[in-house]
Amino acid sequence: MGKKFRETHTIPFYECDAKRRLTIPTLIKLAVSCSTVQSEQLGVSEEDVEKLGLGWIITHYEITISRLPEQGETVTVQTEAESYNKFFCYRNFWIFDESGAECVFIESVFALMDFETRKIASVRDEVLAPFESEKIKKIKRPTPLLPFEKATESKDYRVRFYDLDANQHVNNAVYFSWLFDVLDRSFLEEHVPEKIVLNFNKEVRYGEMVVSEYELVEEVEFLATKHQVNSQDQLSCEATIYWQK
Amino acid sequence: MGKKFRETHTIPFYECDAKRRLTIPTLIKLAVSCSTVQSEQLGVSEEDVEKLGLGWIITHYEITISRLPEQGETVTVQTEAESYNKFFCYRNFWIFDESGAECVFIESVFALMDFETRKIASVRDEVLAPFESEKIKKIKRPTPLLPFEKATESKDYRVRFYDLDANQHVNNAVYFSWLFDVLDRSFLEEHVPEKIVLNFNKEVRYGEMVVSEYELVEEVEFLATKHQVNSQDQLSCEATIYWQK
């Protein structure tokens, strides 16, 4: 069990979609922003980690949505760096509404990248110590994705200047806008995601073109979309989104 | 003199660019959000105006930037619906930093659109009364734009689902991302705008492709970029941005 940290946030209209529901990219931004503030308060800010020649990257998300908060609601965002092994850190996020009900639960996997080699570095105990995360031996197996077969539709996106954050690469929330935007407007207006499983495979850089593809799967038991984002013919990110039926 | 309204806001990392400065689209979102909250508190929310078959549109911005606020700063956003005539409402916005210094001053022109005819409707006194705006005869002449001659560069953008807001059209802040993104990354990293003059000419709808073009003007006295955004071969928005030298 790591130290828990929480912040409150009132959702302005500009963080919402055309249906006044919190957008998924903003949901991710709120979560990661909360962990950034916790890290600063514990004296292991991004700048502190940079001084070691390292930077945080996110490799996996598993997002369970009970209800998307709406414009004007004041939510509590909570995070906890739960545990870590030699290479991966397991961090959880929660979004609660004013009644204390859980709207969103996010499990994520973070790793440290060595800026020089651009490869994953082993986790340093001193970076993790302030979070009081449990050190474990096990490497957790993420929930598998549904296999991608044949694209129902695809759209191209050019990386924009405002997609970059202070790490000089595409902010991880932007991938969610590529994943969702490729879907039809009417589908997005009529459906709410209930579970998103996502793997990041490769960084995308400024000016690159990405291709976002999806495949619709409609079964008796579930409605899902399977996603791939490719850049320069290399898989950058893949995901499965399960939708409320 | 209208009623003034102010809110404070702490700038999270995700509202900033790669240089940790507040992005221009977020600057606009913060301003308009502040006027939305004031309108709600005065009992003339967007929903109330909608019931009259009307909706607010913005036709002109003139933005003077002394300093762009940075990540982590707590700013005060202030607005005042200063005056109005038969067709136009003149609303000002300010962003102050913690020391009370003015970072940004925005003059804007709002109008009411009739949803049925899609044309500008005359301003209703009952909609404006709660703001205590001064009724004037004069139609103010906006600062002229530098004439656009020949594009230095152009980029295409497809309207995305998350570009739409609850009014079901492209949020006005999105135009600023098209205006800025067409510029070179190195130019954007090295320069800060000091004045932006912008006219909106025509709505852009979901799924349309827009072409954002700019022309660089380097004079002894000033450095400026002139901008046009076209959609379906019609001028949607034009602007002049003056940059700190």
UniProtKB/TrEMBL annotation, chains A, B:
Pfam families: Acyl-ACP_TE, Acyl-ACP_TE_C
Domain of life the protein comes from: Bacteria
Gene3D superfamilies: Hotdog Thioesterase
Similarity remark: Belongs to the acyl-ACP thioesterase family.
Keyword annotations: Fatty acid biosynthesis, Fatty acid metabolism, Hydrolase, Lipid biosynthesis, Lipid metabolism, Transit peptide
MF annotations from Gene Ontology: acyl carrier activity; fatty acyl-[ACP] hydrolase activity
Organism of provenance: Vagococcus silagei
Signal sequence region: none
Ranges of residues in domain Acyl-ACP thioesterase N-terminal hotdog: 2-131
Ranges of residues in domain Acyl-ACP thioesterase-like C-terminal: 150-245
Protein name per UniProt: Acyl-[acyl-carrier-protein] thioesterase
InterPro entries: Acyl-ACP_TE_C, Acyl-ACP_thioesterase_NHD, FATA/B, HotDog_dom_sf
